[in-house]
Amino acid sequence: MAILSAMLLASKNEKLRMENQRQKRKRAQKRTYIARGGVLSGAEGASRASAAQEGAAEGAAKAAAGPRQRAKPRCSICKSIEHNARTCPKRQAIS
What we know:
This protein has helices at 2-28, 42-65, 89-94.
C-alpha cells in the first residue's frame, strides 16, 4: 500500500513539475502588441504585424553590427559636454 501511494505521489509530482515548466516558458515568452487604440481591420493588423517583424529584423541586424556608442557625458546643470556639474561655471556663480 505504501509503495502504491509513493508511486502515485511521484507521478503527481512529475505532472506538477511539467506544468510548472510549461507555465514558466509561457511567462518568459516575449509578447508584442500591435493594437494602438480603436478597432483594427484584418488588413491593418496584418500590415502592422509585418512592419513589427521587419523592425525586429532590422534591430537584430543593428545588434549584429556591433555595440552601440554611448553618448558623451553632459553637465546636468547646463547640458554642455565641455564639463560636468561639479565643475559647471553656472553652479559656481550660484554658490
